[in-house]
């Protein structure tokens, strides 16, 4: 684990480098692992165990980066991402308590739910019925046929949705530079699997159950047979604390195509597989099965199509800035800031995070305030 931490820190030192040893973080880590583990002089059994632990560490980094493989993550901009110090903040009522708090200060009816947008027309000349005096450059059409006219629209949909729908979502189409940024940036899937138990089989103060598969190595190609081995991408389980608040619950994390395959399975299939894994890990074939399972399905959700963004091979932090750039691009346009873009994928140093998404929203609100 110390070696993994050291190598990841080393991978963050290439920002601005003119010459790179390899294009991706994954390639760099594997080369360094091969060099250092071999040079360590430890016995064959020790090396074998080291490699198995490092394989789990790479899977953890896939969850953090929201990618199928670290081979997809660009090396040069990897160090631009900033990790804030301190512990993660858990909202007692779930994430919904954050927007609920924000909405409490707004007049009732300000936010319309279940109002899916079909298209955003911009650079137009639209008028409210019976009022030709007021000209609006933007028209938002919803799936139910309702329309809204506006001077400015802030678009916060996930990058996964933009990748799939940008061509028909905007009329006229987005400028090619922004389309290229959407195409080049990475967007992957990281899912959670919650398992609820009648009684805990772990120690009272235990925080984490990690999974290490002895037959795995970061130096070998992983299996592509998702049906047979999807569960091996699971990095382990966090114990939700305190049990007085959450009950006896484990939360597992799984990323990539294996995570997306998991979404296609039934709850029963997932629960049965998790039970089999935990019985294998504990060595207890009679370990009681969880009484319930709850999991996210970020890739299947039509308005997300994944979890969060990363800077992929072939892209850079500049693509994030291009994605965040308002339209029209001409600063002298008499009707500025028709389309503004926010969301985690538009924050150059906090992409993939909730605070990045929140700060990007404040950024675009301030942009409008300064008009």
Automatic annotation (TrEMBL):
Its cofactor is FAD. Its main location: cytoplasm. Belongs to the flavin monoamine oxidase family. GO terms for biological process: spermidine catabolic process. It comes from Chloroceryle aenea. Residues 71-368 form the Amine oxidase domain. This is PAOX oxidase. Pfam families: Amino_oxidase. The lineage of its organism: Eukaryota, Metazoa, Chordata, Craniata, Vertebrata. It is found in: Cytoplasm. One of its GO terms (molecular function) is polyamine oxidase activity. The gene is Paox. Keywords: Cytoplasm, FAD, Flavoprotein, Oxidoreductase. GO terms for cellular component: cytoplasm.
